[in-house]
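Weekly structure sync, notes
Attendees: PL (lead), two postdocs, one rotation student
Agenda item 3: pending single-chain targets
PL asked that the sequence for the first pending target be pasted directly into the notes so everyone works from the same version. It is reproduced below exactly as submitted, 404 residues in total.
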Amino acid sequence: MTSLISIIMPCYNRAHDLRHTLHAYDTQTYSDPFEVIAIDDASTDGTYDILVQHQPKRYSLQVVRQDCNQGPASARNRGIQLAQAPLIAFVGDDIMPTSNFVNSHLAAHKQYPQLEVAILGKVAWPQDMPVNMLMRHIDGVGAQQFSYHFFKNHEEYDFRQFYTANISVKASFLQRANSLFDTSFPYAAFEDAEFAYRLANHGLRIIYDDRPVGYHYHYHTFWTFAKRQYRAGLMACRVVEKHPELASLLRVKKTRHLFVLRLLHRVNDSSVEALSKTAHWLEQQALYMGSSFEWQPHDLLDEFYLRVLEYHWRQGLIAGVFGDTTYAKVISYAYAVYYLGDFFRDFIPRAQQANVPVSMGSMEELNVKLALVESGIVKYLRKFWQAYGYRLTKEWLYTDQVPT
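Predicted structure, written out during the meeting:
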């Protein structure tokens, strides 16, 4: 009997928990055949051996190994090419399906038979894994990872919610759109949204259904998620390179305005070095403080995570917009001092007033560090403006408005 759904699962260095995931597909309540296509993306930890040795009882398992690590986009494309079923589901190797996972996806597509409709299932933290405050935030009001906190069942959402952790589409729709994932995205960030954006041009509709549930076995610390946010900002720039009309939506257009900070690369070397040291100090303080809050709930927690994770996203945007230019690092340093400096000046007094322990020095130390950097920059900019400011303003900003 032909499978009705092909489940495509990219795998990379997941040997420590992969057997549990494979076994979960054996416990499905759905009685008819279905297939799982596992693409090992050149793992180095025994993932491939676990895949080929597994003997499923309730489903067929295709295993493919990539010769070199190419990222999840390439792995999913291999799966799409191998899939034979009329429905295709995309999942992660860290997603543990509940027993009615397959049946629920099939039932949802029966309820929404339109060719262009994709079914977005629910992703939740498992009850048998510790969930820290950072993890609650990114899947809660922060929504930096998933926006389920704000979703309503059977509502329709846009291309940004094409979560390949748990989503299914009609194979014939993909064939009609003649679309695959773009393999130029090296990280697991925005490659799924970019794919969905192209599909949206062919009529893709994403409907959320809370019945297919997958538990997300991926523990995050503040450090690991800050790195993820940086990469997301970097990959947002890759999306805009391909689709310039998304520059405002993904905040790339606003980031380009920071080009005026490139003036600072002409500041003397000692001032740039001081700027660099202060920027790194502020970023380290933010990371240490975010870590200290992981198991420490308080009223200012969501505000802290929103602001500091936004900072890391924007640093990724800065890296994506300005690349390897000579002034890119100076822009990054200056933004760190501006953004984190202002944030800490406001946050720390309120945290101290609320008896929230903060893992950094006193306000006096913060103000001294910022004052040393800011005074040097202000002196330089004042001199530069007096010498060149009016002419550069005409050339850069108001070429069609300022008379010569």
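Discussion points:
- The chain is about 50% helix and 15% strand.
- Strands lie at 5-11, 35-40, 60-65, 87-91, 95-97, 117-124, 156-157, 166-170, 205-216.
Action: rotation student to compare against the earlier draft before next sync.
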